[in-house]
Write a structure and sequence with these properties.
By secondary structure, this protein is of the alpha/beta class. The protein is built from 13 helices and 23 strands.
């Protein structure tokens, strides 16, 4: 619908509304992998259908896993392989999906076969070296076919050769997906694995999702920790996941754009099905909104956020390492605060769909705002300044598009370039956005 650009229409008043967002990408893709490795048929309800989830779904089908998708019902039926992939030779692609790329790498490495894993040009730029190096440390052959440490990869699975439980470590400084991938696929080895998270980053919110979902599918990771070695997981092996019916939570990352709009506009927004017991790390963003003066209420329909009635809220000093997907959302809110905002602990977002730190600063500057990296280069400082309209570059990054669309609710002349990048996780974002905020 909005193939080239989307012009945001500013609004002065929006009555309270309720909106439904798609299922969580993080949970959908984990559920797909766990179901594929289960001992029978799994039914995944409220599944996300987006370019990211379709990439993993197609790859699993190309590996011989039976998957039946019903997009209208938001349901996927997956018949698990019981821990042994039907195809021992295949070429699959992760597309532009980081979760698919990391999950498939570990899956193929712990199977019995030879595989080629390809990806989009954008995904080829994103880091894979920590996972490649971790697998190489236990004797698994993973060869970069183009640039070292990047996709595409030639993977020779080590399921047969790893007859005792290997111990390996992996850095999560650039992404915790490396650890989640090894944890979920580790059950394929006869005796499982022991995997330790290394690096300076301690944010583990997505790993905790992995841990909880593995347990829900019948395999419980055994964590331990020490000051010397950090967090270690013992993953039992030799037993497939248990098949089950599974309901996927609404995507909190997507919900947060609408909740942030409540703060910007002083209205009330309810997102259907979002609960305070959600396993998703972005739930922490609601506490940040409370610090801005919003009220957060758990209603029968879902969590409702009401923004400050006077439209004023303070700048904050906030560490977002555990919910860094909302960095750009927080940066946009900071543009309208009464004082400066310091976002800390987000250095790792440089290596995501784009260099999100550099992109955020560039687009704030394009709008006339003031933003800069902090002294240690791990955060962003935003100082409120008069804003003007601009064409926002999205860098093929869905979160840049969705977050910066919020600016246009209060500033005339904001145009989002290439809004179709939202297909990665939230295909109908701008259609919903229009329905919620376009005045009659």
């Amino acid at each position: 619908m909005f193939s080239d650009s989307y012009r945001v229409t500013p609004v002065k008043h929006v009555p309270p509304f309720t909106v439904s967002v798609p299922g969580s990408k993080s949970i959908t893709n984990r559920a797909l992998l766990l179901a594929a490795l289960s001992d029978g048929e799994c039914v995944l309800d409220n599944a996300l259908f987006s370019s990211d989830s379709r990439a993993l779904l197609t790859a699993l089908e190309n590996l011989g896993i039976s998957c039946q998708a019903d997009e209208e019902k938001q349901r996927i039926r997956v018949t698990g392989c019981g821990g042994s992939l039907p195809k021992t030779s295949a070429t699959v692609t992760a597309g532009n999906a980081g979760t698919a790329a990391r999950f498939l790498t570990a899956l193929l490495a712990f199977c019995d076969g030879t595989y080629t894993l390809d990806a989009s040009e954008q995904m080829k730029k994103r880091p894979m070296a920590p996972l490649i190096n971790a697998l190489a440390s236990i004797g698994i052959s993973v060869t970069s076919l183009e640039e070292a440490g990047h996709l595409p990869l030639l993977i020779k699975g080590g399921q047969k050769q790893l007859t005792t439980a290997p111990a390996l470590s992996v850095s999560i400084d650039q992404s915790s997906q490396f650890l989640s991938a090894l944890m979920m696929a580790g059950v394929l080895l006869p005796e499982g694995i022991t995997v330790t998270a290394t690096g300076s980053r301690t944010a583990m919110s997505y790993v905790h999702i992995t841990e909880r979902m593995m347990t829900e599918f019948g395999i419980t990771p055994l964590p331990s920790s020490s000051e010397e070695t950090g967090t270690t997981y013992r993953i039992p092996g030799g037993t497939p996941y248990r098949h089950r019916n599974y309901i996927i939570e609404p995507d909190l990352s997507g919900a947060c754009y609408f909740y942030a709009a409540a703060a910007l506009l002083g209205t009330s927004v309810t997102v259907s099905g979002v609960r305070k017991n959600s396993m998703q790390g972005d739930l922490r963003f609601l506490s940040v909104l409370e610090q801005l003066g919003c009220t957060v209420a758990d209603t029968p329909d879902g969590i409702c956020v009401t923004g400050p009635a006077n439209g004023h809220y303070p700048g904050l000093d906030v560490t977002m390492s555990n919910f860094s997907d909302q960095t750009m959302t927080m940066a946009v809110l900071a543009l309208f605060a009464d004082s400066p905002t310091h976002i800390r602990g987000v250095a790792h977002i440089r290596a995501q769909e784009c260099d999100r730190m550099a992109a955020t600063i560039a687009e704030i500057t394009r709008l006339g705002g003031r933003a800069e990296e902090d002294e240690d280069g791990t955060g962003i400082i935003i100082t409120p300044a008069p804003l003007h309209g601009a064409c926002i570059e999205t860098y093929q990054d869905h979160r840049m598009a969705m977050a910066f669309s919020l600016v246009g609710l209060r500033v005339e002349g904001v145009v989002i370039n290439h809004p179709e990048c939202c297909k990665k996780t939230f295909e109908n974002y701008f259609e919903l956005f229009t329905g919620c905020f376009l005045q009659p």
